[in-house]
UniProtKB/TrEMBL annotation:
The keyword Iron applies. Its cofactor is [4Fe-4S] cluster. This is Dehydrogenase. One of its GO terms (molecular function) is oxidoreductase activity. One of its GO terms (biological process) is anaerobic respiration. GO terms for cellular component: cell envelope. It comes from the Bacteria. The lineage of its organism: Bacteria, Pseudomonadati, Pseudomonadota, Alphaproteobacteria, Acetobacterales. It is found in: Cell envelope.
Length: 197
C-alpha cells in the first residue's frame, strides 16, 4: 500500500513539475520554456518526415486552389494550401483540407470496375482495356448516329447519340478543348457543364 502511495505521489509530483501552468504562475515567461512540457518538447512536426514536396491543384471545384503535397517513401503524408498561389494564398476550404483523407481512404476505388451487359457482378479490368473500350463505343455510337446533312441538303455534321457533361473542376482551357474535340471533332451537339446546373 505504501509502495502504491509513493508511486502515485511520484507521478503527481512529476506531473506538477512538468505541467506548465505552475511554472507560468511562478513568474516564468509564457513565451519561453515555461509553456513547454516533456511531451510537447518531444513532439516533432510530421512534415519533417517528408522526403519530397510536390504541388497540386485541389480537385473539388473550379477555383483551382494550389496545394503542397508532402510525401514520404512515395506516399502522401500531408496536404496543405500553397502560400505562393495568388488564388488561395495558402488557404483551403474544408473540402480542400480533406484531400488527404479522400486520397488515402480505404473506401476509395482506384481500379477499373466493369459490369458486362446482363451481368450481376462487377469485374476488375486493366485501365488500357477500359480506355480502348470507351474509344470503341464512342466511335460506334457516333458512326451509328452521325448525320451529315438535313433532308433539305444543308450540311450539319452532327450526332445526337453522344453528349458531354463537364464538371465544376474543369477550367476554361479544358472546357475550350472539350468544345473543340467533342463539338468540332466528334460532332456532338449536347455539350453541357455541371457548373451551370
Amino acid at each position: 500500500m505504501k509502495k502504491m502511495r509513493r508511486s502515485m505521489s511520484g507521478r503527481v509530483s512529476g506531473f506538477l513539475r512538468d505541467w506548465s501552468l505552475p511554472r507560468q504562475l511562478a513568474g516564468e515567461s509564457v513565451m519561453a520554456e515555461a509553456a513547454k512540457s516533456a511531451a510537447s518538447r518531444a513532439l516533432r512536426p510530421r512534415l519533417e518526415e517528408a522526403d519530397k514536396v510536390g504541388t497540386s491543384i485541389c480537385p473539388f471545384c473550379a477555383v483551382g486552389c494550389a496545394q503542397l503535397v508532402y510525401a514520404k517513401n512515395g506516399k502522401p503524408i500531408h496536404i496543405e494550401g500553397d502560400p505562393r498561389s495568388p488564388v488561395n494564398q495558402g488557404t483551403l476550404c474544408p473540402k480542400g483540407a480533406g484531400t488527404l483523407g479522400v486520397l488515402l481512404s480505404p473506401e476509395r476505388i482506384n481500379h477499373v470496375l466493369h459490369r458486362a451487359p446482363y451481368s450481376d457482378r462487377w469485374e476488375q479490368k486493366p485501365l488500357d482495356w477500359a480506355m480502348e473500350r470507351i474509344a470503341q463505343l464512342t466511335k460506334q455510337a457516333r458512326d451509328e448516329t452521325f448525320a451529315e446533312t438535313l433532308p433539305d441538303g444543308r450540311v450539319i455534321n452532327q450526332t445526337l447519340g453522344l453528349g458531354s457533361l463537364g464538371g465544376a473542376t474543369l477550367d476554361n482551357e479544358e472546357n475550350y478543348l472539350i468544345k473543340k474535340l467533342f463539338g468540332g471533332g466528334l460532332g456532338m451537339v449536347n455539350i453541357e457543364n455541371q457548373a451551370r446546373i
